């Protein structure tokens, strides 16, 4: 009987100690960041579940369940200036339905931290109105088609006209394009030059098994 009591104490106390140690490895700023990330993801679930513009509420309706993510990973938060390309090449990319698209390689972000060195390309694309310009980061990595979506993932990018501006590129906010949920959509496929030769274990995972 004593052995059973000892086992019960072990089963309840040890996980609590591990949780306490994990919680205390983070600074207050990091804890706040993790909470904000969790809130962002919870809000996105609500939007995708309820919005009429959601890929889950279109013609070919896909059954919704909560999106899947890697845990917050501070190794994949970077800062960098944007190196604007002097010659901005127009390149062909393809959508997941096979259609050809044109986009401009606008610049490069050289991302560095203690563990990673990454060169990430920024693309400029014209909107349907032929006037509005959008800027995008898309990529594949060693998790692609394993833990993460097989086509690739995106990270939002908003251009700042100040050439000395320091951008934050946070892969914890990397997300799947709509074609990851429904074949009704077509999304740009990252090129082989957009492959990052590491496992980006951050951001959104595969939706479909």
List keywords for this structure.
24% strand; globular; 209 residues; 2 helices; alpha+beta; six-stranded antiparallel β-sheet; two-stranded antiparallel sheet
Offer a quick outline of the entry.
With 209 residues, this protein is an alpha+beta fold. It has 2 helices and 8 strands; from the N terminus they run ααββββββββ.
List the helices and strands and how they pair.
Layout: H1 2-23, H2 28-50, E1 77-80, E2 82-84, E3 90-94, E4 100-112, E5 117-126, E6 133-139, E7 153-156, E8 167-170
Antiparallel strand pairs: 1-8, 2-4, 3-4, 4-5, 5-6, 6-7
Note down, in words, how this protein is organized.
- With 209 residues, the protein is an alpha+beta fold.
- The chain has two domains: 1-50; 66-209, no CATH class.
- Helices cover 22% and strands 24% of the residues.
- It is built from two helices and eight strands; from the N terminus they run H-H-E-E-E-E-E-E-E-E.
- It has helices spanning 2-23, 28-50; strands at residues 77-80, 82-84, 90-94, 100-112, 117-126, 133-139, 153-156, 167-170.
- The strands form two sheets. Strands 2, 3, 4, 5, 6 and 7 form a six-stranded antiparallel sheet that branches. Strands 1-8 form a two-stranded antiparallel ribbon.
- Residues 7-21 have low confidence and may be disordered.
């Amino acid at each position: 009987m004593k052995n059973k009591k000892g086992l019960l104490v072990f089963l309840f106390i040890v996980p609590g100690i591990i949780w306490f140690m994990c919680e205390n490895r983070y600074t207050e700023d990091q804890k706040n960041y993790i909470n904000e990330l969790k809130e962002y993801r919870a809000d996105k679930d609500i939007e995708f579940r309820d919005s009429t513009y959601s890929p889950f509420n279109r013609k070919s309706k896909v059954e919704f369940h909560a999106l899947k993510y890697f845990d917050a990973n501070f190794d994949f938060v970077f800062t960098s200036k944007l190196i604007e390309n002097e010659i901005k090449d127009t390149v062909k990319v393809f959508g997941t339905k096979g259609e050809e698209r044109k986009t401009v390689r606008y610049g490069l972000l050289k991302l560095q931290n203690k563990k990673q060195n990454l060169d990430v390309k920024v693309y400029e694309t014209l909107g349907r109105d032929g006037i509005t310009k959008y800027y995008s980061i898309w990529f594949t990595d060693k998790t692609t088609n394993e833990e993460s979506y097989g086509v690739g993932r995106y990270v939002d990018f908003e251009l700042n006209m100040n050439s000395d501006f320091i951008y934050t590129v946070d892969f914890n906010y990397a997300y799947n394009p709509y074609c990851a949920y429904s074949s009704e959509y077509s999304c740009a496929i990252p090129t082989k030059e957009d492959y990052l030769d590491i496992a980006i274990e951050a951001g959104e995972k595969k939706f479909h098994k």
